[in-house]
Write a structure and sequence with these properties.
Chain A: Pfam families: FtsX (PF02687), MacB_PCD (PF12704). The complex is a heterodimer of chains A (about 450) and B (about 210). Chain A contains 14 helices and 13 strands. Chain A is α+β, with helices and mostly antiparallel strands and about 450 residues long. Helices cover about 35% and strands about 20% of the residues of chain B. In chain B, β8, α6 (about 165-185) and β9 form a beta-alpha-beta unit.
């Protein structure tokens, strides 16, 4: 036997009070752990995903939505912009580089992003197998997409309209996997990357197919809704005049012209070559000089039909908004911790009343005053140490559940089981609570007069 | 002489002073302390055990003047050399029987008795892992005796150890303490006003309030 074992025996001798206090403390500390982890990883991830992107240009709408949809690929795109306007913007002397993107489709919930090879260089990706796309309908999978879908090099699959699972499938042209990326730990992991042309052609195919099926009564009623819905989707951009023209063309030259363009190499950089009026969804912009930060957004927002949003500005605005919620949670955590501290104090103090005899007996069998002091401190400290361990464990488990539930969302790829040095502070913090809560009981144990205690019946 | 008190004087705050008769005992000797209720028997025992310090006089055990030790050293000395049996067993409830003994062992650096052996001698072998609050009164008192003896003390003190026991258990408890005291060559002092004890131990002093 020793003092540590003895304190442990006393703790487990009153399991309910001990359990409750440990749990209260653990909950408070779990909240703090989650906040710490999220703050650390989220902000890191956020800045990492937006690195190299000074400005995002897209259709008018919510600037935050624009950033979320085109940088982090979580929200719905705001709409499309005419490619010729995007091209004009890319030639501005304030702009160093632009990367066009066509969004709006998904494969099993993973977003299909039509872009060019500059996007790959932006995130400095490495290939675990295969290479970048060269022709329409060739795709490169992010590491997580490849892992979860089980697709390998050479496999083919059909994309779906819209950006969430369950939208109807494009049934005309299959995508073919030509490359799989290494895990990058950023947004690219959960994307299906391809050329803008792929996205365009998928949607070109769609139109005649749908018109053919309108003979069915149910589809007939839906036609309007369909058309409307399609305007929100990417490569639906072609205005109606153009679509009609397109169809005529297809009807006439379906066999040669149509198939031939599917085997033309796609644009590896800049915009795709086309003589038609096409749309893209967004444009990622890199400034040439700091001056651009001042002039370019204002110019775009007031002189064009497009909107410009800065990732860093929008994200700090988002964090500001979230900040209130985080503060509320932090407050709650501290209330829980304070209550558990009080609970520990009360538990120790009460148990001390019952244990005056025990303490006197301990003195009578040779324990010194100081050893009794240590005994009570040990109880408070082991209680809070348990609480700290449980709290940290709970926090990490909670985060791993969050990350698992949110595979395709913004919490995807949060590392639940990396530990921060700040968590050491949680332990120290908890131990401090333990020391504070047991200080008064320990002092009163120190001062217990044994002779009086033992002779009182 | 193993144990000696001289000119012990003590008074509880605001009360008249006790002047206790001198005691001297050799190894293996037993002594009863008798006296009326309130005459100061427990007070004397506390002085001997170093739980109270006398206003004057001295308590010497095996050459150590224990009333001159400082608090920490006194606690250690008591743990190693003085075994105390209380009126009630006062066992530590969260611990089982053997753990109660081992706790006393922890506070001493002396090599004591073998716990299992001792429990066997006190007919407690089969209880060694029982929770202490499941013991009978007599068993609990025997455990507290075992705890007092585990460190091979030189002096065994007992304050009315038999008052809540029936005749059979009372006799057994006193016999056990005598046998053990003889075995480990310790002096034994029992405070009592239990006539059943007087039949077993003849050597006594009487405390009178002066
Ligand atoms: N801590 C104390 N403070 C003040 N007075 C005390 C204290 N302890 C004991 N006394 C008083 O000292 C006197 C002697 O007490 P003590 O306990 O030594 O008597 P006792 O002989 O053991 O009696 P009993 O046979 O009833 O146990 C009593 O009058 C008691 O009230
Ligand atoms: Mg008494």
């Amino acid at each position: 036997m020793n003092l540590f074992k003895l304190s442990w025996k006393y703790l487990t001798f009153r399991p309910l009070s001990t359990g409750l206090n440990v749990l209260l403390l653990a909950l408070g500390l779990a909240i703090i752990t989650v906040l710490l982890l999220i703050q650390d990883q989220f902000e890191k991830k956020m800045t990492q995903d937006a690195a190299g992107i000074d400005l995002v240009v897209g259709a008018k709408g919510s600037p935050l939505q624009l950033i979320l949809s085109s940088v982090y690929h979580v929200d719905f795109p705001t709409g499309n912009i005419p490619m010729n306007e995007a091209v004009r913007l890319s030639r501005s002397r304030l702009v160093k580089q632009t990367i066009p993107m066509a969004l709006g489709d998904n494969y099993q919930g993973y977003r299909i992003v039509g872009t060019n090879h500059d996007y790959l260089s932006l995130y400095e990706v490495g290939f675990s197998s295969g290479k970048a796309w060269e022709e329409p309908f060739e795709v490169v999978l992010g590491a997580m997409v490849a892992e979860k879908s089980g697709l390998k090099l050479g496999d083919t699959f059909t994309g779906s309209h819209g950006i969430s699972v369950g939208s109807h499938d494009h049934d005309h042209h299959d995508f073919r996997v030509v490359g799989v990326l290494e895990p990058e730990g950023n947004v690219v992991d959960r994307l299906v990357l391809t050329s803008i042309e792929s996205v365009w052609y998928t949607h070109d195919e769609e139109e005649p197919a749908e018109e053919e099926t309108t003979s069915e009564p149910s589809e007939d009623q839906d036609t309007d809704a369909h058309d409307h819905e399609h305007q929100n989707e990417v490569a639906e951009h072609a205005d109606h005049d153009h679509e009609d023209h397109d169809h005529e063309e297809e009807d006439q030259g379906h066999d040669h012209d149509h198939d031939a363009k599917f085997h033309h190499p796609v644009a590896k950089s800049g915009f795709p070559k086309t003589d038609q009026d096409r749309d893209v969804t967004t444009l990622l912009v890199q400034y040439r000089s700091p001056m651009a930060a001042v002039q370019l957004p204002r110019m775009i927002n007031s002189n064009t039909n497009m909107q410009a949003a800065s990732p860093s500005f929008e994200m700090s605005r988002l964090f500001e908004l979230l900040g209130v919620g985080i503060q509320v949670l932090e407050g709650l955590a501290f209330v829980l911790i304070a209550i558990s501290g009080l609970g520990i104090f009360i538990a120790l103090y009460n148990s001390l009343k019952e244990r005056r005899y025990d303490l006197a007996v301990l003195r009578a069998i040779g324990a010194s005053k100081f050893q009794l002091l240590i005994l009570i401190f040990l109880e408070g400290i082991s209680l809070t140490f348990l609480g700290a361990l449980l709290g940290i464990l709970l926090g990490h488990s909670f985060l791993s559940i969050l990350a698992a539930q949110n595979e395709q969302g913004i919490a995807a790829g949060l590392e639940a089981w990396t530990f921060l040095s700040a968590e050491l502070w949680i332990v120290i913090y908890a131990l401090t609570v333990g020391v504070l809560a047991s200080a008064i009981p320990a002092w009163s144990a120190y001062q217990t007069s044994i002779a009086n205690q033992l002779t009182r019946k | 002489m193993l144990f000696q008190t001289k000119d012990l004087k003590f008074s509880h705050p605001g009360q008249k002073e006790y002047h206790f008769q001198d005691i001297s005992l050799d190894r293996g000797e037993s002594l009863l302390i008798l006296g009326k209720s309130g005459s100061g028997k427990t007070t004397l025992l506390n002085l001997i055990a170093g739980l109270l310090s006398p206003h004057s006089g001295s308590v010497v055990l095996d050459g150590t003047a224990i009333n001159q030790l400082d608090s920490g050293k006194m606690d250690r000395f008591r743990g190693e050399n003085i075994g105390i049996v209380f009126q009630k067993p006062h066992l530590l409830a969260p611990l089982d029987v053997k753990e109660n003994l081992m706790m006393a062992r922890y506070f001493s650096s002396k090599k004591g008795q073998d716990a299992d052996e001792l429990l066997k001698e006190l007919e407690l072998s089969n209880k060694s892992h029982s929770p202490v609050n499941q013991l009978s009164e007599g068993e609990a008192q025997r455990v507290s005796i075992a705890r007092a003896l585990i460190n091979r003390p030189k002096l065994i003190l007992a304050d009315e150890p038999t008052s809540s026991l029936d005749d059979e258990n009372a006799e057994r408890v006193v016999k056990l303490m005598q046998d053990q005291a003889t075995k480990i060559q310790a002096a034994l002092i029992i405070v009592t006003h239990d006539h059943r004890v007087k039949e077993q131990i003849s050597n006594y002093i009487e405390v009178k309030s002066v």
